[in-house]
Amino acid sequence: MIRRKTIHESEFDLIAHYFAPLAEKHSPAFGLTDDAAVLTPPEGQALVFTKDALVADVHFLSHDPAHLIAQKALRVNLSDLAAMGASPIGYLLALALPQQMTAREAWVKQFVRGLAEDQALFGCRLLGGDTVSTTGPLTLSITAVGAVTPGRALRRNGAKAGDDIYVSGTLGDSALGLKFLRHEITPDNDYLINRYHLPQPRLELGQKLFGLVSATMDISDGLAGDIRHICQLSGLGASMKAELLPVSSEAGKILESFPRYKKLIWNGGDDYELLFTAPVQDRDQIQSLARDMSLPLTRIGQMTAAPEIAIWNETGDNLLSDDQGFRHF
Amino acid sequence: MIRRKTIHESEFDLIAHYFAPLAEKHSPAFGLTDDAAVLTPPEGQALVFTKDALVADVHFLSHDPAHLIAQKALRVNLSDLAAMGASPIGYLLALALPQQMTAREAWVKQFVRGLAEDQALFGCRLLGGDTVSTTGPLTLSITAVGAVTPGRALRRNGAKAGDDIYVSGTLGDSALGLKFLRHEITPDNDYLINRYHLPQPRLELGQKLFGLVSATMDISDGLAGDIRHICQLSGLGASMKAELLPVSSEAGKILESFPRYKKLIWNGGDDYELLFTAPVQDRDQIQSLARDMSLPLTRIGQMTAAPEIAIWNETGDNLLSDDQGFRHF
User: Which residues are involved in binding ATP (chains A, B) (predicted)?
Assistant: First the structure.
């Protein structure tokens, strides 16, 4: 018979037992005992919602440590809140565990440990969720809830021709980290692997960008693909320089030995850095913000009236023009 | 390379194209163009959140029509809002589509049609979401968002010994409907199949129960399993009578021919009716509410100080005592 709970029910109770401490006993989530959580937004704040789904061996490796899978799933969603300038409040979790999974209880325990650590780090808590079994791969979906002052949410749609284009942090680390995890590069580089496992949602940065920027989003699919969204919404193009794209010293060393992986800088994805545009007159304030936060905010190009997206190399070629994975619009 | 989007990117754009009309162009979801939705709760209201995940061939049949899968997924979540006494505002959707799925575009189109119909029926809209591909079965997760006056959310934890136990509507229809869909009973009974495909979230009832009831939840796993939650939270038991359990005339006719399926009334699940407890003095008001709503609200037993859960048959046997799937606590 098709039933909600095909894993033995007592095991579901056990899972609930592990998850309950992630919620508080009183409102909003009532220790997960009720059908739903009740949340009153902070005084004068609007709520922000985002939802990302992750599938094993598509968005993470199924043998990744459980606590890191949990943290990546949460942080990917927190990165969306960061891109809106919101501060996190909590999250709901749907977890589909493979029927054939071994050592499920130990896995769940580690998974919950990862969430508990990140709840403390980012100031949020579990608001509710659902655990089911699946004949397919481990699948997770998180809905993150944050707060923002009404009218101060950062949007993707305000870029103007001539605006500068910026990215936070460095690009390509995560995609290179995955090359190590897939044994395509050896020996392991812990810094880059860690960047793949543990994205840093730029929450503080997002909360400080209001008033300085014209458009903001987070980079999940790679700079080249993601800037297309900003361009489409404003009817503009983007002209960027490859030599300006920020690369960590660790990634730089690897790319010297493996130059064929250079394009991971702009199309590797999983960066979870903020991509934003800002008027030229904000340059000083943005660099001052970068210094205050000790976080590189690198100017990589400009928005253009011509609706073409280009990353120019030093010999004047558009690196995106021969990129099969990339489409002009 | 492991990437967020393993279905061809242009197909994802197409999917976004179908989903966009389910969201409004302006706040909260900005036509799905941004990283997150921004929602200001109705004046003086708290927000209610719930999340349910559904996996093909666990929670629905993979060959069920796409619009019915969409509607069931949404309604299962709206049922949780109903159990809290909340009114729906919107929902976020994560959809994992099988890589091998054929006619994906046509399927998505029908899926979206189902959502659009139910959005109009229940007064809610798409707030955001994510579409990914999976090597496993079709998997969905919906997070529903509703509103409730602070302090007026219905809870599971307030039952007192001596309180009456009620259920709305009729039980077992959906589980019998599934027997037809699985060809365990023939010929098809459209009423019962429809009850399986299209649960009726008791939103209006939930909004009218505040002040009358001591505990409320919705029945998703079956009466016998779900009342356990109310009993556990109040440290009480429940004494119910099999002859009082409400059964539709359609289900009654089938059960005469197939008496072995009688236990689906209390352990079939997928009913999505409300289960609630109320003090004896509220009986008249509850029956008056039932008449006003033209919805049966049937008194099926009482909460007891002894922490045993029983459904008594006419010869005085507890039908749950030999039920392997049921555990006392």
Answer: 129-130, 156, 220
